[in-house]
Write a structure and sequence with these properties.
The complex is a heterodimer of chains A (216) and B (266). With 216 residues, chain A is an all-alpha fold. Chain A has 11 helices and no strands. Chain B is of the alpha+beta class and 266 residues long. Classes of the chains: A mainly alpha (216), B alpha+beta (266).
Chain lengths: 216, 266
């Protein structure tokens, strides 16, 4: 049904003012999700078209950025996922057992206090690299929580699962990121392995279960 | 609270998602446990570094303009306004970048365009695109000097194969890179060349009618279409409905010759 010109112009002005501050966030997230500039640009455009169409459904007083990201995640899943999924292998990092502690103290220190700007940039690049190795689900978790800093409740609404599940999935995703980062950092010599890691202190979940089963 | 439980709650603590009672227990433990303090410092630092490493990418300059174009379409549909009326506004909004403003002024003084054809509006828009594109110096999506690499990059992105024009001889224009863009709503390839230290942009897009209202000439025995834009010229070669529009920091005869000598569509 055609709307009046005045109402449309009014809505349009508000929508632009609300949206513009989040454009970089949306593009950033889209780029991390699609891993392609062209796809990211298309995804953001499609997201904002949908957001504009459903603008009247946005609940005033709630987080607008979270609302936009939710639309973007849905759009991504519906339209772009199929192509991306083909590139992903089932037994990727997601299948890896994740231990409680995946790093030694020395490794942690090496990554916590990168010496100087150059080192910091190197670590940043490696994080981006490690991130790309994650499963789609884990990438979404890290993006929404760590980069966009949404609350667990907001994330739960976006991915459509209970808050408790957000917590465990997020925990898992971060550990995977660390694991992936760890092996790359070691290869690059950013961190040096010490005796602690060889002591077998980080125990994989599988090993933990085996031990527990043996005890009982 | 045990170390193990503290580690498990670490993420939620940094996120500020622990309930008050658990948070108090958590902090009580961490106050006295050096190893958990280290873990906490690491967790906090990782969070910050992850945000830095993965966020903060700026959207391309022209993205917002393209979003506004799409919103215009929705508004038009809502208002049930004819496309013809709304189009001039669309072009204006499509190029909000200051750099483009100068180029638009240049286009104000267009000469040599046949008037009264219904097609003129769309041609002019496309010409604006070429001129703007060149003056904006948008970064390449792909930096490559091999036509094959560029062709591969566009596979699946444009509904037609992109075959970069090639120029004969060591003094010919050298391919430097390419960028995917949209001309109106149509996907197109912008190819960047260097020619003796000067820049040339070649826009490749499908639009068989583009040449209908263009001037026509022969250079070096080859048919060449062109539009005069201010005191500059945009030569166009067309092969099987695909246009190759040239624009560059070159003298008019030089650009015409270059366009005529290019091997296109091969």
């Amino acid at each position: 049904m055609p709307k009046s010109a005045r109402k449309t112009a009014h809505e349009r002005r508000h929508f632009e003012a609300d949206t513009r501050p989040h454009l970089d966030n949306l593009y950033s997230a889209a780029l991390r999700l699609t891993r392609s500039q062209v796809d990211a640009e298309d995804l953001v455009q499609d997201t904002l078209v949908r957001a504009y169409r459903f603008y009247d459904r946005f609940e005033a007083g709630t987080n607008f950025k979270a609302w936009l990201l939710r639309i973007q995640m849905n759009t991504f899943v519906n339209r772009y996922r199929r192509a991306v999924r083909e590139r992903e292998v089932l037994d990727g990092p997601m299948a890896m057992p994740v231990g409680e502690g995946v790093m030694s103290r020395a490794t942690m220190r090496g990554l916590t206090d990168p010496e100087g700007d150059a080192q910091r940039k190197l670590v940043a690049r490696e994080i981006a690299h490690a991130f790309d190795q994650l499963s789609e689900d884990a990438r979404a978790m890290v993006l929404l929580a760590d980069v966009e800093e949404l609350s667990y409740k907001e994330i739960a609404e976006i991915v459509g699962c209970p808050i408790g599940t957000v917590m465990s999935r997020l925990h898992r995703a971060r550990k995977q990121l660390q694991l992936s980062l760890h092996s790359q950092a070691r290869q690059l010599g950013i961190v040096v392995e010490d005796a602690e890691d060889a002591s077998g202190e980080p125990v994989s979940l599988e090993e933990f279960r085996t031990r527990k089963a043996a005890q009982s | 609270m045990s170390c193990k439980l503290v580690r498990r709650h670490m993420g939620a603590y940094v996120d500020g998602e622990l309930d008050p009672a658990t948070q108090i227990e958590f902090e009580r433990h961490v106050d006295t446990c050096v190893r958990c303090q280290e873990e906490l410092a690491f967790e906090t630092s990782m969070r910050e570094q992850t945000r830095e490493a993965l966020g903060g990418v700026e959207a391309p300059d022209d993205l917002w303009g393209r979003v506004l174009n799409r919103l215009d379409e929705i508004d038009e549909a809502r208002l049930d306004v004819g496309v013809a009326q709304a189009r001039p506004m669309r072009w204006k909004q499509a190029w909000p970048i200051a750099a483009a403003a100068g180029a638009l002024l240049v286009l104000g003084g267009v000469v040599g365009l046949p008037e009264g054809t219904t097609y003129q509006g769309a041609s002019m828009g496309t010409l604006q695109d070429v001129v703007n594109l060149h003056s904006q110096r948008l970064p390449s999506d792909v930096e490559a000097s091999e036509p094959g690499q560029v062709a591969t990059y566009f596979r699946g992105k444009t509904p037609f194969p992109v075959r970069p024009a090639q120029f004969e001889g060591a003094n010919g224009a050298q391919l430097a890179g390419a960028r995917y863009i949209r001309v109106g709503n149509k996907p197109a390839a912008a190819l960047y060349y260097n020619y003796g230290g000067r820049r040339m942009t070649l826009l490749v897009f499908r639009d068989p009618d583009m040449v209908n209202s263009a001037e026509r000439t022969h250079v070096g025995g080859r048919e060449l279409y062109y539009y005069n834009v201010g005191n500059q010229v945009v030569p166009i070669r067309q092969v099987r409905g695909i246009n190759y529009a040239f624009f560059g920091d070159l003298e008019k005869p030089q650009l015409m010759e270059l366009a005529a000598s290019a091997r296109v569509g091969q």
